[in-house]
Amino acid sequence: MSDMLRLIENEVQLAALAFLGLVYIVRLIWIFRFASRKERTFAAGSQGAGIRRSLANIAMPWAMESTRKDPWLYAQFVVFHLGVAAAIAATFIIPYAPHVFEIRAVVLLFQAVIGAAFLAGVLRLVRRLVNPVLRLISSADDYVSLVLMILFFAAGFLAVPNDIDRAEWPLIAFFGLTAFFLVYVPFSKISHYLYYPFTRFYLGRTLGHRGAIPQGTRPMSPGKDNERTSRPKGDPR
Amino acid sequence: MPFIEIEGRRIEINEEGFLARPEEWTEETARLLAKAEEGLDDLTESHWAVVKFIRDYYLEKNLAPMVRKMCQATGFTLTQIYDLFPSGPAKGACKVAGLPKPDGCV
Amino acid sequence: MAGGRLQTYDPAGDNVRRFLELLAGRLTRPLTVSLTACVHCGLCAESCHYFLARPDDPTMTPVWKADQIRKVFKRHIDWTGRILPWWVKAGSVHDDEDLNRLKNIVFGSCSACRRCTYNCPMGVDTGLLVRFTRGLLTELGVVPEGVFNVSRDQWETGNQMAVSEQDYLETLEWMRDEVRAELGDDKVDIPIDRPDCDILYTINPREIKFDPRPIAQAAKIFHVAGESWTLPRWGWDQTNFGLFSGDDRLGAWVARNVYEAAERLRAKRIVISECGHGYRSTRWEGYTWAGFDQRVPTESVVVTLKRHLDQGRISVDPSRNAEGVTFHDSCNIARSGDLVEEPRDVLRRVCSDFREMTPNRRENYCCTGGGGLLSMAEYRPLRLEVAKIKAEQLRATGAKYVCTMCHNCIDGLNDVIKHYKLPMKVVQVLELVSKALVLPEKGGRG
Ligand code: SF4
Ligand code: SF4
Ligand code: SF4
């Protein structure tokens, strides 16, 4: 293994990872500096149930009309993100647990997942280039992030066999891209996963409190009285 | 400016179907508006009683009258007003009387 | 009384700078994350009736509309866009013309129905962003004339149709007399400012000014049910243009009038007549705007009616509403509130032919008159054009009546029905219950 590869698999990765972590910490502080409002009404539903349901939404394609009507798009989404998870896992497995990739079945599995994600990525790129709505709203960041992901999948597909005797360049490309990603990601749309819990939490909290979600599980307002409505904490009565 | 064309005449209205320039109202426009917008082929004496009251009230106060005032002045019950103008006092009767669209959730 | 905080547009003012200051100053955490989280996936597009009706116009999609404020946020608040604006499509507003354009988008091409919110995989609340942007523009007086006039009336008179106290009281007396005559019972009353009642009833000024029949229907049913109730002399308008204009101060003031009326009269419960945005404002948002901790249950009159039915305090005969009835969920109630099954439960008991429209409940399409659009004449042509979606949905039910628990939806739906020549009539829950109401024998309870 060349020094270059060793360096890029280890020190460079760790430095980039530390950078990403640092920026995210600042980013989270930034988010928390914006105030959130206190709920002052009696609940008709449950905040907890709303939050849980809202966060689980991602795994419930039947829950939204938009995903229900287009399962094909949803399937692409799943494949794409499984590929992301596999590729990220590979960046840790290769330097720290290389024996895993000595098992041929594992390598094939990773290649299958990452390869499928590559195809899903291409389909998404085509959609972004062809669909007039997406063309109108897409920014350079949207395109570049997607293209980078597609390249990352390609590199990952070639890198997981971890066969440095055959060629080092797939690994160098893969880890080079990873390092670049770690630095670029906090400033791009790819960071959406950092915001997802927040948007979902606040939406779920509000709508759950009001009993608007989860759908169909809230008991109807009872005939007798609003007894079941809970009072906000600190309410004197 | 949108308009309606009826019986060979052209009446300018605003986006809400109300007369564009309320000051240009005539009995003839009322008849045409009633036909085009309310589907009333003929304005009876009862219709005229309501329309004229609204018109006079508007000219005096620059305001659409409350439906209670319409009933008081004309002696009609609320149901009768709705029978006369299917779209109701605001979007029906006031429109025929050539008033601008009343403000608010109507 | 009002505080008169409505801003008028000042062409010489430093409006762009003020806009940006307001934007920076009013951001909350839910707003900020909704602004940052959008991944431009476009999945929300087909949830919006504007885009469904104009599929060739990408500017009708929720994401494009929200992006018009998002790009300003990116340019001035977020990180990357401040340094590399073009990279993330960040951009600013430069002059009043830009503000005006923004106004036409957030007021003119969105009814703030939140249907897109429910269809965004990221949980981006576009409805919330639209209201937020409206609020910034309202603060500068860059608002549609109708919104301005109604807000002014509500600030100045405490109700959105500038009904005077005398007119208010006289109309209530009139309705009381009508119900007395109908029931042949002089004990029927519409009490004003009676303390210690179970119910404080609040209404939509439209009921006073143009259509007081729902007041009479409520009075009749409450009488038969033996309800202890009152209307307040002040604080009776449960509607709230602050919801539409995005002006939290107006929202706070109007809602507080209602809450304080309940305190003053020691009412045990606030009941809101059938109104979608009024329900959302008074039951949910108003307490937040006003910084007022809820102390008494606050409910829609539909829930009150359901209670009367559940407890056997009124009896009904569904055969009196024999023709097909479908139900239109008001977005403000179903998507931003809780009541979905309650009105259906009541309707099933008072109608013999109840049918759902498709989609329904939280996925229902807006009546197209929401978000205050009924008061904005300038956007009416577009509103009626995109109402095509609603018209098709209504027509498919084959029902003779479409019932809704929202005054605003009544007018919105009436416009759709008229424009698309549907053989339908709009009714409210109170009207159907009132028609089905079986009057007790004379000398019984009353
Ligand atoms: S809130 Fe409703 S009208 Fe507005 S963009 Fe979303 S779906 Fe369309
Ligand atoms: S669905 Fe959500 S994330 Fe996707 S474009 Fe619309 S608002 Fe953005
Ligand atoms: S008017 Fe009715 S359907 Fe339309 S936005 Fe309001 S509540 Fe929704």
**Amount of beta strand of chain A:** under 5%
Distance between the amino and carboxyl termini of chain A: 72 Å
Say how many strands of chain C there are.
10
Mean pLDDT of chain C: 94
Mean pLDDT over the full residue set of chain A: 90
State the separation between the terminal residues of chain C, measured CA to CA: 39 Å
| CA-atom Rg of chain A in angstroms | 23 Å
> Percent of residues of chain A in helical segments?
55-70%
**Uncertain stretches of chain C:** none
Structural class of chain A, by secondary structure, is mainly alpha
Please summarize the sheet with the most strands of chain C. Answer: 4 strands, parallel
Strand content of chain C: 5-15%
What small-molecule ligands were found? iron/sulfur cluster
Shape of chain A: globular
Largest interface: A-C, 67 and 75 residues
Number of helices of chain A: 10
Question: What does the overall shape of chain C look like?
Answer: globular
Share of helix of chain C, binned: 40-55%
What's the arrangement of secondary structure elements?
The complex is a heterotrimer of chains A (237), B (106) and C (446).
Chain A: H1 3-9, H2 11-32, H3 47-56, H4 65-68, H5 71-96, H6 104-130, H7 132-137, H8 140-159, H9 169-184, H10 192-210
Helix pairs in contact in A: 1-9, 2-9, 3-10, 5-6, 5-8, 6-8, 8-9
Chain B: E1 3-6, E2 9-12, H1 27-38, H2 45-61, H3 67-74, H4 78-84, H5 88-96
Antiparallel strand pairs in B: 1-2
Helix pairs in contact in B: 2-3
Chain C: H1 15-26, H2 29-37, H3 49-53, H4 62-76, H5 80-83, H6 96-106, H7 126-139, H8 145-157, H9 165-183, E1 199-202, H10 205-209, H11 213-224, E2 229-230, H12 241-245, H13 248-264, E3 270-272, H14 276-290, E4 298-300, H15 301-310, E5 315-316, E6 325-328, H16 331-334, H17 341-350, E7 354-355, H18 380-386, H19 388-397, E8 401-404, H20 407-419, E9 425-427, H21 429-436, E10 437-438
Parallel strand pairs in C: 1-2, 1-3, 3-4, 6-7, 6-8, 8-9
Antiparallel strand pairs in C: 5-10
The site of one iron/sulfur cluster has 15 residues of chain C, from helix 4 and helix 7.
Can you characterise this structure?
The complex is a heterotrimer of chains A (237), B (106) and C (446). Helix content of chain A is 66%, strand content 0%. Chain A contains 10 helices and no strands. Chain A is globular, with a radius of gyration of 23 Å. The N and C termini of chain A lie far apart (72 Å). Chain B has 106 residues and is mainly alpha-helical. Chain B has a single domain (3-96), classed as Arc Repressor Mutant, subunit A (Orthogonal Bundle). In chain B, helix 2 crosses helix 3. The two termini of chain B are 22 Å apart. By secondary structure, chain C is of the alpha/beta class. Chain C has 3 domains: 15-143, Fumarate Reductase Iron-sulfur Protein, Chain B, domain 2; 155-311, no CATH class; 315-437, Rossmann fold (3-Layer(aba) Sandwich), CATH 3.40.50. In chain C, 49% of the residues lie in helices and 7% in strands. Chain C has helices at 15-26, 29-37, 49-53, 62-76, 80-83, 96-106, 126-139, 145-157, 165-183, 205-209, 213-224, 241-245, 248-264, 276-290, 301-310, 331-334, 341-350, 380-386, 388-397, 407-419, 429-436, and strands at 199-202, 229-230, 270-272, 298-300, 315-316, 325-328, 354-355, 401-404, 425-427, 437-438. In chain C, the strands form 3 sheets. Chain C has a 4-stranded parallel beta sheet with strand order 2-1-3-4. A 4-stranded parallel beta sheet of chain C has the order 7-6-8-9, with helices on both faces. A two-stranded antiparallel ribbon of chain C has the order 5-10. In chain C, helix 11 crosses helix 21 (429-436), helix 13 (248-264) crosses helix 14 and helix 15 crosses helix 17 (341-350). The interface between A and C is large, with 67 and 75 residues. The structure holds iron/sulfur cluster (3 copies). One iron/sulfur cluster (SF4) is lined by residues 111, 113, 276-277, 330-332, 366-367, 369-371, 406, 408-409, 412 of chain C.
